[in-house]
Structures are given as structure tokens and as C-alpha cells.
Amino acid sequence: xxxxxRALAATSAAVxxxxxxxxxxxxxxxxxxxxxxxxxxxxxxxxxxxxxxLHVTEKISGATGALRRTFLTRTRHDDADDRLYRIANAxxxxxxxxxxxxxxxATVEYDVKGTVTPAGNVQEMRWFAVNGWSVPVARATVKVxxxxxxxxxSCFAGELTSAVGCTSAAMDHxxxxxxxxxxxxxxxxxxxxxxxxxxxxxxxxxxxxxxxxLTAAFALNTVTGGALAALLVLLLGGVGLLYWTRGRDARxxxxxxxxxxxxxxxxxxxxxxxxxxxxQIGTLVDEQADVVDVTATIVDLAVRGFLRIDEQxxxxxxxxxxxxxxxPAGHPAALLPYERALYDAIFDGREAVLLSQLSGSFxxxxxxxxxxxxxxxxxxxxxxxxxxxxxxxxxxxGVALIxxxxxxxxALAWFTSYGLLGLALIIAGGALAVGGQYMPAKTAxxxxxxxxxxxxxxxLFSGDLGEVPEQHRVELFSRYLPYAVIFDGVEHWSRIVxxxxxxxxxxxxxxxxHGPAEWDLSKFAGSMRTFTTTTSGAISATRQFxxx
Length: 548
What we know:
Elements: H1 2-15, H2 18-28, H3 31-38, E1 40-48, E2 54-70, E3 74-76, E4 81-84, E5 86-91, E6 94-96, E7 99-113, E8 116-119, E9 122-130, E10 137-145, E11 152-158, E12 168-171, E13 177-185, E14 190-198, E15 207-210, H4 214-217, H5 222-259, E16 265-266, E17 269-270, H6 278-286, H7 291-303, E18 307-311, E19 322-326, H8 337-347, E20 352-354, H9 361-379, H10 387-415, H11 419-435, H12 444-460, H13 470-486, H14 490-498, E21 513-514, H15 524-540
Parallel strand pairs: 1-10, 18-21
Antiparallel strand pairs: 1-2, 2-7, 3-4, 4-15, 5-7, 6-7, 8-9, 9-14, 10-13, 11-14, 12-13, 16-17, 18-19, 19-20
């Protein structure tokens, strides 16, 4: 049969010409294909209920086979919101997301919410009665019934944004229903119907979804403005707290310095303020056990006779080095815990060690030195808790608050207009993390010790050292030197130490510092500056002190 039709078409083409051929092909085309090209017919009945639900029934004919319709469920409502239409309870087809699959001919039913919106003194029901079909719609009729008298009606056909009216729109003589008709809609085109009812006729309302924008997400309103004001009060309160705790240092220091008439020199011998050692002073002043404190303690151990520093000879391009020699006259039992920890870390069973070789076991012991220094300032009653622990606790709390603020900012900005609340948390967390570095507060006793320490520093650099007997100058000025390391005055005091000996004449060595051959005390200032710098560098290269 198929061969016969092809032969017939070929004969027609030869005998009757193109026009006759077209007519012949049309006549031999299967009926379903002709119906698909002609388009389907859609008879729609819509009923708006009191609760605002729109029930839709569609009778689809004029086409056969699988058809698809993609519902329009989101439109622009205003500058800030989108309007949503929610479809449910589909029958006669398979609804997957926004897509309805139908096998024509069929009768389809579904419910729509979100079609009603206030419009002045009326309620408007708006729905895309026809839209998103995969085939042309040759003819569509729509009948709408609602919970009240029709106040007005309109319709639009074509593309979704079209302002062209539909083929016809009218209401029945009772005014309770509206009818619409449209012909020849291409695939994807829409027929939108709008029917107005009296205000309050139904409980329907538009479903709005806030459209994301930075302006809306971080809007300044009563809630966000109040939160920012509260943050400002919190930050000011934090500043006040820091002033009350830290400002006390300044108040006590000023008072103690005004009434401090003592001198660290008694009967020609050195007596540090409150018996405080250099490492303790360094930790007290900056609230950190750092490399300078350890370096000053090494110099102090040498000055007090526990070890000797021997500068090693070197060639022009050799790196400077020093031998630290254990002295038998020193009794380790007289050392404070942090000094003993450092003493043991240096020698570790050895009688002497080069500064360049202080690694391995020395590095592993430095953590104990640092812990012992912090424990010492707490034991002295200068701090209620270890300063490093206090800083870490507040800083970690600030970092955690920043993390919470970041998550809150993303969530609040995406789902609400309260993004500024999250930013407030981030700012508060940052302030807490930074302020945490200043949270360790000295006790009243610690503030008094700091005042005496600063008075000693002023005395040390005043240049007015009083009448110091010559026989005591080497020992006295040497005892000053470790404190000068803490106060960043090592070169100044090294020159003073190098300028005198027990009898007022220049010498080649000190009792605690020996130089190589051809070396004398005129080079001591430069040697000490290099020694303290090299020692601090060696310590800071270890894991415990690397970040200080």
C-alpha cells in the first residue's frame, strides 16, 4: 500500500504539477498528524473558592498522544518580591515540578493557590489559563466562577508580557461568571485571564518570595538599627572595661612613681626593685614570655656567676659565636624555677656549649621555660591568671564569634533582610579577638610592681647614678646590663660597663665575659649587641618562640 501511494505521488508530480502534488500529499497524510498541526482545543473551567483556592478543569481534545505543559509558577511582583503560584492535587496527568505530562485526549484537574491579590477596593484573580503547551492551541475557552459578583474582567493573549487582548471576553447576564475565548496560540504562548471580585470575597492572598539583592539583604531597619546600636554600646562598654582594668596600671604607676624615692643601689650593691629579675620584668611589662626575656636571663645568669660567656675567635667572614661555660661557683638550687629550667636547657649535662649548637634538647626545653615564666608572674601575685591563657581564651572566643557571624550573615542575607545582624556579629567578634590581646589585667600588686619597674628604668637611663665607689662599678654596672637588655638599652649600658674596671682603668675582660685574643673592653658594646641579637635569633628559630 505504501509503495502504491509513493507511485501515485510520483505520477501526480509528473502529470499535475506542484500544486496538485501538494494537494495529493495533504490528502494522503494520516489524520492524527493533521490534527497536531491544526492544534488542540482546550476547554477550561475555573472556580475560585472562598479560601482563595482556584480549582481548574481542562478538557483537552483535537490532539492525540503525549503532550507537555510547563506551568508558569513565578512572576515578578515588584522591585523586591517575586509572586509564586503553587499547583497541587493534579489529576488526569502527571505533575513533576512545574511540568505536566498528559496523554490526549484527556481531562485534567488541579488546584492553584496564590492567584488572588488586593487591587484597591477589589480582589483580582489572575491565572495563566493557557500557557507552556508543547503544541499549538487552535482554540481555548475559559469559564470562570467565583465567590461574588464580577466587578471587572480582562484578558491578554500571546507572549507572557503581551498587552494584546484575547479574542473575546464577557460575563453572563447574572454577573456571577466570566467567559473568555482565544484562537491560534503558538506553542509556549499564554492566555492570561483577570477577574475582579468584591474586596473580602475570598481569603486568598498573593504568595510572595523576597528576591535576593544586596540592598534588601542588608537593609537598615528597626531591628538591624537596634542591633547596631546595641553593638556600639557593647564596644563602648568593652573600651570602658579595658580602661578600668588596664587604666589602673597607669593610675597606680603615676601614684607609685610620685612616691618612689628609693634607689636600686644600697651600700654600693645592686638591689633590683622588689627583688624582680630581668625575665620577670620583661613578662610583667609586656605580659608575654618572649625571646628578649630569655636572652636577658642568660646575661643575668652570667653576671650572677652561674655561667661565663666566652666570645670565640673568628675570621673576617665567619659568623660570630660564643661558648657558654658552666661555673662551679654557681649553685643551681638558688635559681628560680624558670631560671633553673633555662639553665638545664642550656647545659643539659654538658660543662660548655657553643651558642650555635643550642638546638635539639634546648629547643624542647624552651616550652618549660616559657611555662615557668608565666607560672612565676602568677605566683608573684601580679596576674590572677596566666596572661597567655587569658589572651587565647578571649581571642578564640572572638574568632568563634566571627565564624558564627559569617554563617549568620550568609543565612540572614539569603533568606531575610537582616544581613546587618550577621555583620554586627562579625564586627563584635573582630573587636573581641583584637581586644583579647589586651585582656590580661594586672592585679593591684602587679601594677605596683610595674610602677617600681618603670621608675627603675627612668633611673637607669637618667644618667644620674650617684656616687658609686670605683670598686663596685664593674659588678654594679654589670648587674644593670640584663635589665638594659629588657629596656632596649644594651648598647648604652655596654659602653658604660666597658668604660670602667675595679681600679678605674681599662681591662681586657670582665669576670663574666671573656673575649678572644687581641680583644679588649673597647669592643664590648659591639660584642654584646651582636650577642643579644644572635641569641634572640637562635631562640626565636625554635618552635616554642617562633611566632613571638
